[in-house]
Structures are given as structure tokens and as C-alpha cells.
Amino acid sequence: MTVSSPLIPVLGSLHALQVPIPYPMKTVTVLIDAPAHGPVTMIDTALDTPEARAAIEAGLKALGLHWEGVERVIITHHHPDHYGLAGVIEERSGARVTMLDVEIGRGERYWHMLREWLPGHVKHMLDHGLPQEMVQGMRGENEHVHPASRVQPLREGQTLELAGRAWEVLWLPGHADGHLGLWNPEDSLLIAGDAILPRISPNVGLYAYTRPDPLGDYLQTLGKLEALNPARAVVGHHGPLMEGVRARARELRDHHHERLDFMKAETAGEPRSAYELSLAMFSRDLPTSGRRFALAETLAHLEHLRLLGQLYRTWSEKNQVWLYHA
Ligand SMILES: [Zn+2]
Ligand SMILES: [Zn+2]
């Protein structure tokens, strides 16, 4: 009986794994590069679950490696499904964990500042109308995430080697403040993480600790991707590879512009809170965590318009909430 290898070839010594995660996307892409010369590198690490550990171990084994063999870890962004096992790998192998400098100062810091940041995080949601009972489950912690103890910075424009080729480090903010991309012009290949996804629109949310205009950031990222026009991209979910990045970037930009128009129409009448507006923008039934994501995404659209001077907000003393209006 032949057991098929879990490794999907990407480019030379660079391979992709589809690692299971307990989210609707079902898998996240983890990349392993085991070149003849140069460090054994893992890009993104999935969440720490027994299933994910087994899947990554199987991938390493197919290359004749084990956890101890990993020398460098590159994280596209701080979200649990990409960062979860980084600390475990660091501890077991002494691997150097790297991220974009912007992400270290923001998203990554979040995992170390949970207790200090949680009250501000909760207040931000309440100030925008989230009902009190919907903040109950917010602990911020995640038992599947083990942040690294030392993360070394990568900088936009820097070059690093992977699969025997030179890759440019890109900053692709929006989905996360310090989202990293790796660009190989020679092969027209982009390692994109969640900056662009083929089937779902990457969540763009405004939280207490994010940059002030994540949607503005994301629209610029989409412009950057459109100009780059990679032949192929390695994506975090529903991949590992996608083509048609330029067309998808345009589609996502249209999608956000439609939502901006919708917000303008919705705020033309009575002033309303971002939470009330999120019920209009995401009218389907959602679990509490989904409602908080919906609020953050609605807020990203509202604040983008407000910073452009196309909407206003007023603090309601009576309801202790921000109200958006034309
Ligand atoms: Zn993400
Ligand atoms: Zn993801």
C-alpha cells in the first residue's frame, strides 16, 4: 500500500501542507522549505491541536525531518490559526521566529498583553453598542496559541532567501496591521497568507488595538496586489495555491465599495450605533463571536468613511454609545 505524501509542491524545495483547524475554513496552509543550502523554514504554524501537530509532523517526516530540525519560522500575521504553534516550535528546536516589525508591536503584543488590553478591548465594543451580555465570553485568551518568547523583526523591502531564491518582504496591512507577504518576482509567486483569499473576503475589523483605518489600509493592499499581479499566490485558506490574484483583488475592492455605499445609505436617516448598523450589514444569524466580528468589520467601514469626512459620529450621553450619522 502506498501512502500519499501530504506535501504539495510549491516551488523547488518549498512545500505546502493543508493543516486542519477547528474553524469553518477547515484548513490553514503551512509551508515547509528544506533547501540543500540554507535554513529549514516553516511559514505559519496553525493552531495547537493534536490534529494540527500530527499533520505537521507527517509533513516534516516526509522530508526526513522532525520538529527539532526547524531552524526558522516566519509568521504572516498574529491570528491564532497562523501563530498557534510558534512558541512550541521555538522551544523544541530553538528556531528563530520572525514577523514583520509592525506586527510585533501590535498584533503579536496582544498575546502578551491580554490582561492589560482586555478592559480597553471590551470598552471599545460596548462604546459601539455591543449588548453587555455579548461581552461575557470575551477572555482574549486562547489555549491553542503559544506565542514565541522572542520574535525577531523583518522589515518591508528586506530580502530573504527561501527555496534558493530571493524574496522581497512586503507589508500588506488590513486583515492584520502587520500582515507580511513574500514576493518572488523571478517566478511571479507571492506568499500571501490571508491578505487575499479565493473564496471568502478576509475579515477587516477595527478593534481597540488596531490601526485607526484598517479598511483604508486594506484597500491600499488590494491596489498593491493588483499592481504586483502575481501569476500565483500561496494563500492561508482554500489553497494552497490560487491564480487570478489581480481579478480577485478588484472583486474584493468592489465588494468593500458596495458595503461603503450601503453604510452611507443606512446612516442617511436616524443616527445609529455601529452595532445596530452591523445587524443591517450582516443580517444573517450569527453566534456571539460572529456578531463581534461583524461589529468590528462594520466599524472598519464606518470609520473609513468618517476619516474621509463622509460620515460623522456623536457620543450619546443617554445611551452611552457612539452614534453614526450623515
Ligand atoms: Zn487571519
Ligand atoms: Zn487565517
TrEMBL record:
This is Glyoxylase, beta-lactamase superfamily II. It comes from the Bacteria. Transmembrane segments: none annotated. InterPro entries: B_lactamase-like_C (IPR048933), Metallo-B-lactamas (IPR001279), RibonucZ/Hydroxyglut_hydro (IPR036866), Sec-metab_biosynth-thioest (IPR050662), WH-like_DNA-bd_sf (IPR036388). Residues 25-237 form the Metallo-beta-lactamase domain.
